[in-house]
Specification:
The complex is a heterodimer of chains A (about 170) and B (about 100).
Chain A: H1 2-20, H2 22-29, H3 34-59, H4 63-93, H5 102-133, H6 140-166
Helix pairs in contact in A: 1-6, 3-4, 3-6, 4-5, 5-6
Chain B: H1 6-28, H2 40-61, H3 69-95
Classes of the chains: A mainly alpha (about 170), B mainly alpha (about 100).
């Protein structure tokens, strides 16, 4: 919860400065491809759906489907990660770096911090897989805590996507 | 074999539809030359849609709807707090431009 409040403070600063210089932000924002943002969001929502299924399967004692869903979640996370790296590379090729202007500073900062949280999410999913693989370790509480972390990564992206790509 | 949960599918479809609605918002908020225009209405609408999605993720994917009432109220309060914070920052920035 504290983490999300820190993110909210970043979002607040971004919106404050954006409202003060709308032309600069609009001009820079036009360089982003909204379709990539939509694709990334749909992929991350798919990952949230599969981790929610993983929790329900584990609760019902169906550990094989739960393991399959945990691995599927990691796969969607990987697709998101590759798409993000592709988008960053594309922006850098277009000449839009971290210091190009205020908008791109926020763009790289927010997507970069989210990316770090996504990487931590892979470790968290690793814990889920480790838990589910052996009957001696299976802790439903731990699986649900890990799933909650993954959903947090998802809803933070939902907000970042809206603020960077669609807000006017 | 665990039964397929249709509710989670419906939740994903609703979240995906709200995401795709941004394409329509983007299209309808451009001027005739296809350039982006600043709009407080679009900004407010986009933030509200994003927070509706966040609340759905809380309640359905994170299963808060089945949690004790206090947790439900706390997460709703959190969503409202974020809404006030984001919209407040935006409109304050506009006011002192």
């Amino acid at each position: 919860m504290f983490e999300t409040l820190v993110f909210t403070a970043y979002f607040g600063f971004y919106l404050f400065y954006r409202a003060r210089s709308p032309e600069l932000f609009l001009h820079a924002q036009a360089q982003l491809d909204l379709r990539i943002g939509v694709f990334n969001t749909l992929v991350l929502l798919l990952s949230s759906w599969s981790v929610a299924r993983c929790v329900q399967s584990a609760r019902a004692g169906a550990y094989r489907p739960a393991l399959k869903d945990a691995l599927l979640t990691a796969f969607f996370g990987l697709v998101f990660m590759c798409s993000k790296v592709f988008e960053w590379a594309r922006q850098i090729r277009m000449g839009n770096g971290f210091a190009t202007n205020e908008f791109f500073t926020y763009y790289y900062f927010l997507t970069g911090i989210h990316f770090v949280h996504l990487l931590i999410g892979f470790v968290v999913l690793g814990v889920v897989v480790y838990q589910l693989r052996s009957p001696a370790r299976r802790s439903q509480e731990l699986v649900e805590t890990c799933a909650t972390y993954w959903h947090t990564v998802d809803f933070l992206w939902v907000l970042i996507f809206a603020l960077l790509y669609v807000v006017r | 074999m665990i039964k397929f949960n249709k509710r989670l599918l419906v939740v994903w479809v609703v979240l995906a539809s709200l995401t795709l609605s941004y394409l329509w918002i983007d299209h309808s908020s451009q001027d005739q030359a296809g350039s982006l225009r600043a709009s407080a209405v679009v900004t407010s609408g986009v933030i509200v849609i994003a927070l509706i999605k966040v609340r759905i993720i809380f309640r359905e994917f994170m299963e808060v709807r089945r949690a004790p009432a206090l947790l439900c109220r706390l997460t709703d309060a959190w969503v409202i707090l974020i809404a006030v914070g984001l919209l407040g920052s935006y409109f304050t920035g506009m006011a002192i431009r």
